[in-house]
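Here we describe the complex-level prediction in full. Unlike the single-chain runs in Section 2.1, the four entities below were treated as one system.
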Amino acid sequence: MNIVFKALNDATRRQILEMLQKNDLTAGEIAENFNISFPSISHHLDLLKQAKLVTTKKEGQFIYYSLNTTVMDEIVKWLLQFKPKKNK
Amino acid sequence: MNIVFKALNDATRRQILEMLQKNDLTAGEIAENFNISFPSISHHLDLLKQAKLVTTKKEGQFIYYSLNTTVMDEIVKWLLQFKPKKNK
DNA sequence: TGTATATTTAGACAAATATCTAAATATTTT
DNA sequence: AAAATATTTAGATATTTGTCTAAATATACA
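The structure predicted for the assembly as a whole is:
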Protein backbone atom coordinates (compact mmCIF):
# COMPACT_ATOMS: atom_id res chain seq x y z
CA MET A 1 0.00 0.00 0.00
CA ASN A 2 2.90 2.22 0.86
CA ILE A 3 4.22 1.87 -2.66
CA VAL A 4 0.86 2.75 -4.21
CA PHE A 5 0.56 5.98 -2.25
CA LYS A 6 4.13 6.72 -3.18
CA ALA A 7 3.38 6.15 -6.85
CA LEU A 8 0.31 8.37 -6.64
CA ASN A 9 2.23 11.14 -4.91
CA ASP A 10 3.43 12.81 -8.08
CA ALA A 11 1.52 14.92 -10.55
CA THR A 12 3.37 13.53 -13.56
CA ARG A 13 2.57 9.97 -12.61
CA ARG A 14 -1.07 10.78 -11.95
CA GLN A 15 -1.22 12.44 -15.34
CA ILE A 16 0.25 9.35 -16.93
CA LEU A 17 -2.52 7.27 -15.37
CA GLU A 18 -5.10 9.66 -16.76
CA MET A 19 -3.53 9.40 -20.20
CA LEU A 20 -3.79 5.64 -20.09
CA GLN A 21 -7.52 5.77 -19.44
CA LYS A 22 -8.33 6.13 -23.09
CA ASN A 23 -5.75 3.93 -24.74
CA ASP A 24 -2.69 1.93 -23.99
CA LEU A 25 0.39 3.90 -24.95
CA THR A 26 4.05 3.25 -25.58
CA ALA A 27 6.69 4.76 -23.32
CA GLY A 28 7.59 7.12 -26.13
CA GLU A 29 4.04 8.29 -26.70
CA ILE A 30 3.73 8.99 -23.01
CA ALA A 31 7.03 10.84 -22.84
CA GLU A 32 6.11 13.09 -25.77
CA ASN A 33 3.43 14.69 -23.62
CA PHE A 34 5.84 16.00 -21.05
CA ASN A 35 8.74 18.40 -20.99
CA ILE A 36 10.76 15.84 -19.15
CA SER A 37 13.47 13.59 -20.50
CA PHE A 38 12.70 10.05 -21.63
CA PRO A 39 14.77 8.52 -18.84
CA SER A 40 12.81 10.46 -16.25
CA ILE A 41 9.52 9.26 -17.69
CA SER A 42 10.92 5.77 -17.79
CA HIS A 43 11.64 6.10 -14.10
CA HIS A 44 8.09 7.27 -13.40
CA LEU A 45 6.74 4.36 -15.39
CA ASP A 46 8.89 2.03 -13.37
CA LEU A 47 7.39 3.33 -10.13
CA LEU A 48 3.88 2.94 -11.51
CA LYS A 49 4.78 -0.60 -12.50
CA GLN A 50 6.19 -1.38 -9.08
CA ALA A 51 2.89 -0.23 -7.61
CA LYS A 52 1.14 -2.45 -10.16
CA LEU A 53 -0.85 0.57 -11.31
CA VAL A 54 0.27 -0.22 -14.85
CA THR A 55 1.25 -3.35 -16.71
CA THR A 56 3.48 -3.65 -19.75
CA LYS A 57 3.40 -5.65 -22.92
CA LYS A 58 6.24 -5.77 -25.35
CA GLU A 59 5.41 -5.53 -29.03
CA GLY A 60 8.49 -5.51 -31.18
CA GLN A 61 10.64 -2.62 -30.18
CA PHE A 62 7.77 -0.90 -28.42
CA ILE A 63 6.58 -1.39 -24.88
CA TYR A 64 2.92 -0.73 -24.35
CA TYR A 65 1.73 0.50 -20.99
CA SER A 66 -1.76 -0.28 -19.75
CA LEU A 67 -3.71 0.82 -16.73
CA ASN A 68 -4.42 -1.71 -13.98
CA THR A 69 -7.35 -0.42 -11.99
CA THR A 70 -7.57 -3.27 -9.53
CA VAL A 71 -4.95 -1.71 -7.29
CA MET A 72 -7.14 1.33 -6.83
CA ASP A 73 -9.80 -0.76 -5.13
CA GLU A 74 -7.52 -1.31 -2.19
CA ILE A 75 -6.89 2.40 -1.78
CA VAL A 76 -10.54 3.28 -2.18
CA LYS A 77 -11.39 0.70 0.44
CA TRP A 78 -8.83 2.15 2.82
CA LEU A 79 -10.18 5.66 2.28
CA LEU A 80 -13.80 4.66 2.67
CA GLN A 81 -13.17 3.04 6.02
CA PHE A 82 -13.02 6.58 7.38
CA LYS A 83 -16.42 7.60 6.15
CA PRO A 84 -19.12 7.24 8.73
CA LYS A 85 -21.27 4.20 8.01
CA LYS A 86 -24.60 4.76 6.44
CA ASN A 87 -27.56 3.19 8.17
CA LYS A 88 -29.25 0.35 6.29
CA MET B 1 -5.10 17.30 -4.42
CA ASN B 2 -1.36 17.23 -4.63
CA ILE B 3 -1.14 18.07 -0.98
CA VAL B 4 -3.58 15.33 0.00
CA PHE B 5 -1.62 12.64 -1.79
CA LYS B 6 1.49 14.04 -0.19
CA ALA B 7 -0.10 13.86 3.24
CA LEU B 8 -1.22 10.29 2.64
CA ASN B 9 2.22 9.24 1.44
CA ASP B 10 3.58 8.41 4.87
CA ALA B 11 2.83 5.45 7.10
CA THR B 12 2.96 7.50 10.29
CA ARG B 13 0.44 10.01 8.99
CA ARG B 14 -1.89 7.26 7.76
CA GLN B 15 -1.66 5.64 11.17
CA ILE B 16 -2.57 8.94 12.80
CA LEU B 17 -5.68 9.12 10.64
CA GLU B 18 -6.61 5.60 11.71
CA MET B 19 -6.13 6.55 15.36
CA LEU B 20 -8.50 9.47 14.95
CA GLN B 21 -11.26 7.24 13.67
CA LYS B 22 -12.38 6.30 17.14
CA ASN B 23 -11.88 9.51 19.07
CA ASP B 24 -10.47 12.94 18.74
CA LEU B 25 -7.05 13.08 20.35
CA THR B 26 -4.63 15.69 21.56
CA ALA B 27 -1.24 16.10 19.92
CA GLY B 28 0.33 14.56 22.99
CA GLU B 29 -1.91 11.52 22.99
CA ILE B 30 -1.09 10.95 19.36
CA ALA B 31 2.62 11.38 19.91
CA GLU B 32 2.67 8.87 22.75
CA ASN B 33 1.85 6.12 20.30
CA PHE B 34 4.98 6.58 18.27
CA ASN B 35 8.68 6.30 18.89
CA ILE B 36 9.15 9.65 17.26
CA SER B 37 9.77 12.99 18.91
CA PHE B 38 6.91 15.37 19.63
CA PRO B 39 8.16 17.95 17.17
CA SER B 40 8.19 15.35 14.41
CA ILE B 41 4.63 14.34 15.18
CA SER B 42 3.71 18.00 15.29
CA HIS B 43 5.13 18.34 11.80
CA HIS B 44 3.12 15.35 10.58
CA LEU B 45 0.01 16.85 12.11
CA ASP B 46 0.74 20.08 10.33
CA LEU B 47 0.88 18.30 6.98
CA LEU B 48 -2.40 16.53 7.70
CA LYS B 49 -3.89 19.87 8.60
CA GLN B 50 -2.61 21.51 5.45
CA ALA B 51 -4.30 18.75 3.50
CA LYS B 52 -7.44 19.40 5.56
CA LEU B 53 -7.50 15.74 6.53
CA VAL B 54 -7.70 16.85 10.13
CA THR B 55 -9.04 19.87 11.94
CA THR B 56 -8.01 21.26 15.29
CA LYS B 57 -9.80 22.69 18.25
CA LYS B 58 -8.07 24.30 21.14
CA GLU B 59 -9.27 23.46 24.63
CA GLY B 60 -7.20 25.13 27.29
CA GLN B 61 -3.63 24.10 26.87
CA PHE B 62 -4.60 21.11 24.74
CA ILE B 63 -5.16 20.97 21.02
CA TYR B 64 -7.60 18.34 19.89
CA TYR B 65 -7.21 16.82 16.47
CA SER B 66 -10.23 15.47 14.59
CA LEU B 67 -10.59 13.61 11.34
CA ASN B 68 -12.13 15.39 8.38
CA THR B 69 -13.35 12.76 5.98
CA THR B 70 -14.74 15.06 3.33
CA VAL B 71 -11.35 15.42 1.72
CA MET B 72 -11.25 11.71 1.07
CA ASP B 73 -14.29 11.97 -1.18
CA GLU B 74 -12.28 13.88 -3.70
CA ILE B 75 -9.55 11.26 -3.76
CA VAL B 76 -12.02 8.42 -3.96
CA LYS B 77 -13.72 10.17 -6.85
CA TRP B 78 -10.43 10.61 -8.63
CA LEU B 79 -9.56 6.95 -8.15
CA LEU B 80 -12.95 5.68 -9.25
CA GLN B 81 -12.82 7.57 -12.51
CA PHE B 82 -10.40 4.87 -13.64
CA LYS B 83 -12.72 2.00 -12.97
CA PRO B 84 -14.62 0.89 -16.03
CA LYS B 85 -18.22 2.02 -15.85
CA LYS B 86 -20.75 -0.57 -14.91
CA ASN B 87 -23.72 -0.93 -17.21
CA LYS B 88 -26.75 -0.30 -15.14
C1' DT C 1 3.93 35.97 39.55
C1' DG C 2 6.54 32.08 38.81
C1' DT C 3 6.61 27.19 37.52
C1' DA C 4 4.78 23.22 35.17
C1' DT C 5 2.48 21.34 31.10
C1' DA C 6 1.20 21.11 26.05
C1' DT C 7 2.47 22.12 21.71
C1' DT C 8 4.81 24.46 17.97
C1' DT C 9 8.68 26.80 15.61
C1' DA C 10 13.53 27.08 14.20
C1' DG C 11 17.52 25.26 12.50
C1' DA C 12 20.43 21.33 11.27
C1' DC C 13 21.24 16.97 8.96
C1' DA C 14 20.76 12.44 6.64
C1' DA C 15 17.93 9.91 3.48
C1' DA C 16 14.81 9.82 -0.35
C1' DT C 17 13.32 11.68 -4.77
C1' DA C 18 13.06 13.83 -9.45
C1' DT C 19 15.71 15.20 -12.84
C1' DC C 20 19.51 15.25 -16.15
C1' DT C 21 23.18 13.38 -19.61
C1' DA C 22 25.60 9.47 -21.29
C1' DA C 23 25.79 4.74 -22.11
C1' DA C 24 23.64 0.16 -22.65
C1' DT C 25 20.17 -3.10 -24.49
C1' DA C 26 16.80 -4.73 -27.69
C1' DT C 27 14.48 -4.72 -31.98
C1' DT C 28 13.71 -3.41 -36.76
C1' DT C 29 15.12 -1.93 -41.21
C1' DT C 30 18.24 -1.39 -45.06
C1' DA D 1 26.02 -6.69 -40.66
C1' DA D 2 25.37 -1.89 -39.88
C1' DA D 3 22.38 1.87 -38.85
C1' DA D 4 18.16 3.59 -36.92
C1' DT D 5 14.59 3.49 -33.44
C1' DA D 6 12.60 2.56 -28.69
C1' DT D 7 13.44 2.14 -24.14
C1' DT D 8 16.03 1.33 -19.97
C1' DT D 9 20.06 1.54 -16.84
C1' DA D 10 23.84 4.04 -14.60
C1' DG D 11 25.70 7.69 -12.30
C1' DA D 12 25.52 12.52 -10.83
C1' DT D 13 23.16 16.43 -8.67
C1' DA D 14 19.72 19.59 -6.63
C1' DT D 15 15.52 19.52 -4.00
C1' DT D 16 12.37 17.63 -0.78
C1' DT D 17 11.34 15.11 3.28
C1' DG D 18 11.51 13.06 7.97
C1' DT D 19 13.85 13.33 11.91
C1' DC D 20 16.31 15.37 15.77
C1' DT D 21 17.54 18.89 19.65
C1' DA D 22 16.91 23.39 21.45
C1' DA D 23 14.15 27.31 21.94
C1' DA D 24 9.71 29.73 21.81
C1' DT D 25 4.75 30.27 22.79
C1' DA D 26 0.55 29.56 25.25
C1' DT D 27 -2.21 28.06 29.00
C1' DA D 28 -2.95 26.34 33.75
C1' DC D 29 -1.82 25.99 38.46
C1' DA D 30 0.18 27.09 42.97
